[in-house]
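request received
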Amino acid sequence: MNKRKLKEKIMLGTISLLATISAIPIFMIIINIYSEGLRYVSLSFLIDFPPPPIGGKAGGIGPALAGSLILMSLALMIGGCIGFFTGLYLSEFSHTKLAQYTQLFLQIMVEFPTIIIGLFAYSILVVPLKRFNAFAGAFALSVVIIPYIALNVREAYKSIPYSLKEAALSLGISHPKAYLRVLLSAARRGVLTALLIGMAKAAGETAPLLFTILGTSFSYFEGLDKPINAIPLLIYNFALSPYERWHQVAWGASAILLSIILAIFVISRIVVKEVKI
Amino acid sequence: MTWAIEVNNLNVWYGDKHILKNISFKIPKNIIFAIMGPSGCGKSTLLRAMNRLLELNPHARVEGQVRIDGIDVYNDNVDITWVRRQFGMVFQIPNPFPHLSIYENVALGPKLNGLVKNKSQLDELVKQALEQAYLWDEVKNDLKKPASMLSGGQQQRLCIARALALKPKIVLMDEPTANLDPVASSKIEELMLELKENYTIIIVTHNPQQAARISDYVAFLYMGELIEIGETSMVFTRPRHELTEKYVVGRMG
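response:
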């Protein structure tokens, strides 16, 4: 083997090793969370109220799981709609000043610390109502996911070949019809991925919820204007507590949260494969 | 005589660039009208100025008139979707909607425009359009299959069927055979000769031989100007302009 080939091999080997190393944390996280958390998970764990710190039943994360699902749905409804139409505008009116500035602001917003968005929601929706409430949490999550959805929807529509846009409009239909009835299905891979990314983001965020929903774990949903809980917030609160039982609940909840995120990821992969054009 | 289309003093700019300069012509109905010229001379722009597809480009600006059946498509009272329905358009690269089935590709236009009342009417219309495009026999058992499974020539005929399903007055074709093999191309040319019984066809081509083969009227466009227009036999045998002569004998391309 000559020197040049040897060099090449060493180089390739190093890069492969580094690539492998970068993938290790995800497996370690999955193994760690499931080995610590799965043992506490059962059907009743998904439904029951959390246990008292000492004594009583094993308990569960029912209200937090329900709260998370409610907050995710609300955030996806609000943020998904706004994000989708913003993305469509950014793609199809990219020559306008409004679109150019909006895109710039959204790119900045993607990088915003989410705790600041939580504080913002606190000041405009919690302080005036004088109460922590579910809507403030859903609002904060919507604000967090809008830029992700908008920028990804923009990419999805941008990727449609120009000739297909011409073909759609040559049918003598209005722009809204062309974009929503004809071209949306051409862009559906990207649009669905955008919505799923938003969903995963809404499921996993903790910071926007800290000052908005309080995290009451001892009642199910009581209304949008009342406190609510979510899994990430429950993990945060319970893991910080001094009680061993609550630590166990936090581990179990982590396993559930991880499962939700992985499920969204798997679904998005399947969806993307299925609708490949 | 009523003309299929009348163009008066048409000017088009892309930003500051003057693309089409004072184009005026009129053509009768039920003929094939070829617009030929070297690439970049404004042929495709002229076609898109007729059905106002040009407005998809935010930098394009149009002045002048395009009249179909006496109505100026640029009149403020005229609805742009109505204008586009008067024209069926076929593009240079076959562009069926790849995610839709063969049937849906043809059915989409009539469905979204509310041209049919029920499914059986739609079925009939789709069949008719596919027959007119010489495609029915090849696809009648595969209507539910995706359009992307068809060959290039078949895809282009599907696009013709898609355009015809709107029952347009005029069919615009933007170099429809530029990306097809010779066999598929000649099939499209045959088809055009058949279609002119019922439609006026305007075809853009960079190939003077094709214009000579199929068109009744021909225009020669050069650097945004209409150099010459007339009956095809005249333009090709006795061109009045030196540039036209150079182009048709193949000394410019």
